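Handout, page 2. Input:
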Amino acid sequence: MESFRSEYFLRTFAENQCKICKNKLQERNEFYVLLMSNQPKMKKYSLLLSLLTVLVLTTFSFSSCKKKTDPVPDFPQLIGHWSGTTSQSTQVRFMVDNLKGYLYVTEYHLMVYTSGGYHEYEAYYSYGIATVSNKQFKIHLGTGSSGESYIDGTFDINDMTLYGTFAVYEPGNSTDLVTGTYSCSKDAK
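Output:
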């Protein structure tokens, strides 16, 4: 009889445990079904949250990437291309740029007639060849036995002209300077 009671007790206990497990399993299944039925809403919210996060991050990253501009120099109207002719009726050209709030000649082309024919003196340097100070500049080209080789210039902002002088050595000759004058006007934009 004792074994019957123990057996009955164990069977009843096991059945109750199974009912509890079945109930828990059924609750879990119901929760899973509920979770799966809400999944499209959750995906929408998750997608919306992701897009919002990307939008906020790109806004902050692009707001710090504003194009940095150089400060405005004195006489900003001098910035640009200048071209003209020399006293030898040859071409001369200059480029003036704003570099960190200062004006610089960044490029020049000067055609000069020497005893050996036409020679072009030219240079380009994006960081500036010569500073424009008080509307004037001087480009040093070198020195020879007859003195300094150079191109200088003065801007007249009233009539927007550039005029100046040059003294250059013929290539291979550091004795004889070829000198002249030039005048330029600013090229139209």
